[in-house]
Amino acid sequence: MGNANGTYSVGYCYDNGIGVEKDDHNAFIYYQKSAEIGHFEGTFMTGFCYRNGKGIKRDIQKANYWFKKYYEFIIDNEIINDDNDVKKMLDNNKYQLSWIPYKNLKSIEEVGNGGFAKIIKQDLNQK
């Protein structure tokens, strides 16, 4: 399996029960395979699964590893520049976007799922 988009899509189908029975473990397997061959959304979802124990035993260290890879991929490939609104904010220095370490987040939960998106809610521990 060498097609990152196809591999990610299989994971997405298992995750959402599209054309197959919903299966969190198989979703995780395909997300991780896609991440290993360079799919940035697969990288995020692998971290998400590890962080939430979805389809795999919860492992915060592995979650942080995959989230860091995701963040590095976005920065290295300048994906953030594809969003004109975000680019304007950065260019105008109105807001500063930074990586928020997982340890600074609390009460992370998936609050919605459907169509092509998941909605995730978390609170930030202010220091």
TrEMBL record:
> GO molecular function terms here?
protein serine/threonine kinase activity
Report the Pfam families cross-referenced here.
Answer: Sel1
Does this entry carry the keyword Lipid biosynthesis? Answer: no
Q: Entry's InterPro entries? A: Mitotic_Regulator (IPR052945), Sel1-like (IPR006597), TPR-like_helical_dom_sf (IPR011990)
Gene3D superfamilies in the record: Tetratricopeptide repeat domain (1.25.40.10)
Highest taxon in the source lineage: Eukaryota
- Keywords of this entry: Kinase, Serine/threonine-protein kinase, Transferase
Q: Does the keyword Flavoprotein apply?
A: no
Protein name in the entry: Serine/threonine protein kinase
Q: Provide the species name.
A: Gigaspora margarita
